[in-house]
Structures are given as C-alpha cells and as structure tokens.
TrEMBL record:
<protein>
    <submittedName>
        <fullName>Uncharacterized conserved protein</fullName>
    </submittedName>
</protein>
<dbReference type="Pfam" id="PF05430">
    <property type="entry name" value="Methyltransf_30"/>
</dbReference>
<dbReference type="InterPro" id="IPR008471">
    <property type="entry name" value="MnmC-like_methylTransf"/>
</dbReference>
<dbReference type="InterPro" id="IPR029063">
    <property type="entry name" value="SAM-dependent_MTases_sf"/>
</dbReference>
<feature type="domain" description="MnmC-like methyltransferase">
    <location>
        <begin position="130"/>
        <end position="207"/>
    </location>
</feature>
<dbReference type="GO" id="GO:0016645">
    <property type="term" value="F:oxidoreductase activity, acting on the CH-NH group of donors"/>
</dbReference>
C-alpha cells in the first residue's frame, strides 16, 4: 500500500497525507496558500532584492511548495541563488511532478528546478545552483559545506509530536549555527518547546500573524533571527509581530521543555518519552493553567 494519499486542498492545490506519520502535509484550506502565508511573505524577500547572492536551506522539502514560492520570486531578480534541501523521501516530489494540478502552479523555470532534483538531485541554471540531500536530515546536513551560511532556512517537518527528531534542541542548534547574521529561520510551528529552543540557541523570535480568513489561530508560525528585526520592517510587513503576552507566558510552561536527541540518532518514541519524563518532574507552570488563563485549547 502506498504511504501517501493524494488530495486537493480548498485552494485547488495538491497535497498529501502520510499514512506512516498519520498527518497531512498541509492545511486543508490550501497547500499553496499555506506556503505563501507562512513562508514566502514572512521571508520579506524584497529586503534582499539588492543582494548579490542568497543561500537557502529547505528542511523537509516534501512536495516543494515552500521552495517553489521562494524561487518564483528570486528567479525574477538578478540574484545569484544557492539552494540546498534536506529530505528523507523522494516520493512526494515525484508524485507531485506527475500531477497536472501541481505542474500548472509553477513557471517553466521552477518546474525545471523540480525535475532536475527529481532526476539527478542537482540543479544548475546560469550562476544558480541547487542540491537535494536525500536521507535523514540529522546526518545529511553534514554533507553541506560547514562554512556555508544560510540567509533563509525553511523548517517544515511533520509536527513535533510526529517527528520530534527534527525539532530537537540539538538539531535546532545545528541550524542556528548555519544561519547567517542577517538570516531568517521560518517555520509553521508555534510550539513552546520549539520557540524556547530557538531562544536558548540565541535567536530572537517573532510570531507570524494569521491570515485574515483564519483568525481562529493566535499565531501561524515563527520567524527566528540572530539579529532583531527593525521595528519599521515589522510595521511594513503585517505578517510578522512581536510575541504577545500570551505567547511569552506560553514559554514559561511545561510545554517549553525541549525535545532532546543528543546522539542525533534517537527515534521518535525515545525522544518523546524522555521529554515526558522531564515534564513530569518539572517545576514549571502546568500548561493547562496557561490554557485556562487564556481560554485556549492550543
């Protein structure tokens, strides 16, 4: 039996459901829309349009929507692109490239990029280049030149409870070390454990504002940076805001206890079990008290 079930989201774009992880790749409201709202817009690419080069890392590329949206913007500019991807399974990209509704989303240049990765794992177009590193991201990240610093890291694994291996404090530290001084690490996750790990890694964190048609959520994701975002850029981009009091208090609860994977080889059950034991012994505020205070189920 195939591990993935294909389905069309409400915006008409293709997505997948993983039978192994028992989790969908995207919001049901729209795979393409999610990548635009949670990754492309918070990246504020207009701020790097004057750059000579931008270096991108896509962690858990999946179908490729996040990278596709970024490349559609950058390939229109005279900016040199170096791209790296970390992905354990080639099948999602292959499935997407065989679906007309996926193909029709992208320009010929981006489709060429996807096809190159699918066939050879490499992409070259003029001065631009890209490489996909197939396999466990915890090991494959070391295939990337150690001195390379990323201007943009797109972190998009399955949720922490499903794939804690790629949300561990140790893996986040590895990503932080590879982030450039001005770079942005962007993720859909709002989990206190992940945000707290970002902070312990020395990053400044910001909340991604939910789209106007999804005000049920209090945040749509997180942007993490080594440098603070200037206030004028926050005001200019309505997609990003400072953490609210509610979000700050969330970081003081037991939910903020990190996922730990010191060997870089732990499995999900081990990592989750270790965290649950640490939570049971913690003196931090119980998360249920925080939920009650803020009248939230999340």
């Amino acid at each position: 039996m195939d591990d993935y079930k294909k389905h069309t989201t409400r915006d008409g774009s293709l997505s997948l459901y993983s039978l192994s992880y028992k989790e969908g790749f995207h919001d049901k409201d729209g795979a393409l829309r999610e990548s635009i709202n949670k990754y492309l817009l918070p990246a504020q690419l207009e701020e790097v349009y004057n750059a000579k080069k931008i270096v991108v890392l896509d962690v858990c590329m999946g179908l490729g929507y996040n990278t596709g949206c970024i490349l559609e913007e950058l390939l229109q500019r005279n900016i040199k692109i170096e791209w790296h991807g970390l992905e354990i399974d080639q099948k999602p990209l292959n499935l997407g490239l065989n679906e007309k509704i996926f193909q029709e989303i992208w320009s010929s240049k981006v489709l060429h990029f996807f096809n190159c990765l699918n066939i050879s794992g490499k992409w070259t177009e003029g001065v631009n280049q890209g490489t996909i590193h197939w396999g466990d991201a915890r090991q494959k990240i070391f295939e990337i030149q150690d001195s390379l610093r990323f201007d943009l890291i797109l972190l998009d694994p399955f949720s922490p409870q499903k794939c804690p291996e790629l949300w561990s404090e140790e893996f986040i530290s590895l990503l932080t070390a590879r982030l450039s001084t001005e770079g942005r690490l962007i993720t859909y996750s709002t989990a206190a454990s992940i945000r707290a790990s970002f902070k312990r890694a020395g990053l400044n964190i910001y909340s991604i504002v939910p789209s106007t048609d999804d005000q049920r959520k209090w945040s749509s994701g997180t942007v993490a940076m080594k440098k603070k975002i200037e206030q004028q850029l926050i005001e200019k981009n309505c997609q990003i805001k400072e953490l609210s009091t509610k979000e700050v208090e969330h970081l003081a609860t037991r939910s903020s206890i990190p996922y730990r994977d010191p060997t870089g080889k732990g499995n999900s059950k081990e990592i989750i079990s270790t965290r649950e034991i640490e939570q049971s012994k913690s003196q931090l505020i119980n998360t249920s008290s925080w939920r009650k205070r803020w009248n939230t189920a999340r």
